[in-house]
Amino acid sequence: MSPEKPTDDLLNIEHPATGKKWELPVEDGCLRAVQLRQIPLGQTDLGLMSYDPSLLNTASCRSAITFIDGDAGILDYRGYSIEDLAESVSYPEVCYLILKGELPNRKELAAFQAELAEEAVLPAYLLELFASFPDEMHPMTMLASGLAALGAKYPESEKVLDEENRNKQIIRLLAKTPALAALAWRRTQSDSPVGPDPEKGFIVSFLRMLLGKPGEDFEVEESFARAMDALLTLHADHEQNCSTNAVRVVASSHVNPYSAVAAGCFALHGPLHGGANQAVLEMLEEIGTVEAIPAFLEACKCGDRRLMGFGHRVYKNYDPRAKVISGLVDSVLDAGQPDPRLEIARALEAAAREDDYFVSRKLFPNVDFYSGILYSAMGFPASMFTVFFAVGRMVGWLAHWDEMLRDSEQKIARPRQIYTGHSRREVPPMDKR
Ligand code: CMC
Q1: Do 78-270 and 276-377 show the same overall fold?
Q2: Four-way CATH pick for 276-377: 1.10.230.10, 1.50.10.100, 3.40.350.10, 3.40.50.970
Q3: 188 CB under 6 A from ligand 1?
Q4: Phi and psi for 31 in degrees, rounded to 5?
Q5: Of 312, 319, 339, 400, catalytic
Q6: Which run of H or E residues covers position 109?
Q7: 254 given a catalytic annotation
């Protein structure tokens, strides 16, 4: 289904006290908030403003990257459905598509992969930096710190308005983020780093850095490589989510992209954004048996608990990413250890989808419902789930960064506020306070 173009129109506003009228243009289904400024409210004010805490009803940009129809459960990158991309296109091809707008042909893909391969190795000072991190540091904090520190090596990355320079930094960040993520994982395990092997392809090289042994050949389960490829594709972009908005806002000051994506990592780390898959696993462990499901659902329905991994601000239908992940779980579990939590998850989904509370509120599984089980089956603990999310999302952040800097309408992000504090007053001397 294609996005329907909203019609342009005029909005008529009349001030009831003065009878004064304004005609405000509606373009692409939106009213430009600055148009409200022409409607005065008093002698000294700047004009009418819009108030939209958490930006629930504000489009902050035009974007040609990702389309979501939450009611229909549709997610497309550059016009291709997420299901088709996850099924038949590799993650590097998806990266090319997201960045350049079209899928690569063989020659373009080979050139793109060669560029990534050339940039796959980390500068040596980062190994020393990671070795100096305390044992208890979260791998997501390591990744964000590593990204910011990586920027120090490339002072030319400050030239954010230079397109050629931007492309160079995009390749560098895409190529080196898996190495930073793997370094973070190995630091948490006190394991020595293993370098990339880009000849084997982006995904196998990433898995080698994560799971390989120094100096030994690396073989990986086909189903693991396939699952990691699909998971990175599913996480590659999700339009103006919290972390992408954070990247855009930070980058709007024209800081270098390493600092902007480090900010994106910190935004993604929060439990309301990238951290929910960990909560799903904890919930499944707590439920413990299929017999305990009805009582848990009752607790959700009376507001004592939340069914984690269900519900979404945008999707009021099955999250298409959850469908793909649900399909991948069986193949990965067949190749690895069986997981008793999967039986509980499947029974929980079936029970919730027959229950009027969840049906009437359009609460369906979201991307996090099965992704934790999948990562867990590949041998990773919950602390790494958001790190993998960030590796996949890096291309989305970079595509939005580039798109924003090409957009002549974009300026430094700087919202207004409604001031609720004191009016001007005099500073009292110390003995009068
Ligand atoms: N379990 C039980 N009830 C729920 C749930 C849930 N998971 N989600 C929503 N509801 C109820 C909610 O209580 C409300 O009921 P009522 O109308 O009686 O007050 C109704 O459904 C509407 O919910 P809402 O809180 O207004 O919806 P929201 O759009 O503000 O919240 C959400 C979306 C994702 C925060 C929420 O569904 C939730 O907390 N889900 C569980 C956490 C989770 O899985 N988060 C991952 C989101 S996807 C990852 C990402 O994209 O970053």
Answers
A1: no
A2: 1.10.230.10
A3: no
A4: -100, 130
A5: 312
A6: helix 106-118
A7: no
Mean pLDDT across the stretch 290-304?
A: 97
Residue holding tokens 């413990």?
Answer: 288
| CA 299 / ligand 1 centre spacing (Å) | 15
| Helical segments of 152-215, H only | 163-188, 202-211
Of 76, 24, 33, 88, which is closest to residue 414 (Cα–Cα)?
33
For residue 3, pLDDT beyond 90: no
Q: Report helix, strand or coil for 272.
A: coil
Q: What is the DSSP letter of 310?
A: B
Sequence ranges of the domains in the chain: 1-59, 78-270, 276-377
Please name the fold of domain 78-270. Answer: Citrate Synthase; domain 1 (1.10.580)
Q: Ligand 1 pocket, 372 CB below 6 A?
A: no
- SS3 for 127? helix
Return d(Cα 393, Cα 238) in angstroms, integer. 8
Q: Is 14 helix (H, G, I), strand (E, B) or coil?
A: strand
Closest atom of ligand 1 to 273 CA is 52
User: CB of 82 within 8 A of CB of 321?
Assistant: yes
Q: Which residues touch 272 (CB under 8 Å, ≥6 apart)?
A: 242
Using an 8 Å Cβ cutoff, are 183 and 193 in contact? yes
- List b or e across 60-83, with b for residues whose CB sees 16 or more CB atoms inside 10 angstroms: eeebebbbbbeeebbbbbbeeebb
Q: What is the DSSP letter of 157?
A: G
CA distances from 297 to 121, 204, 277, 281, 305 (A): 48, 40, 18, 16, 8
C-alpha angle with apex 363: 357 to 364, nearest 5 degrees?
130
Degrees, nearest 5: CA angle 384-335-211: 40
Q: What is the pLDDT of residues 53-68, one digit of tens each?
A: 999 999 999 999 999 9
* Residues present in the chain in total: 433
- The yes-or-no verdict on residue 299 having pLDDT over 90 is yes
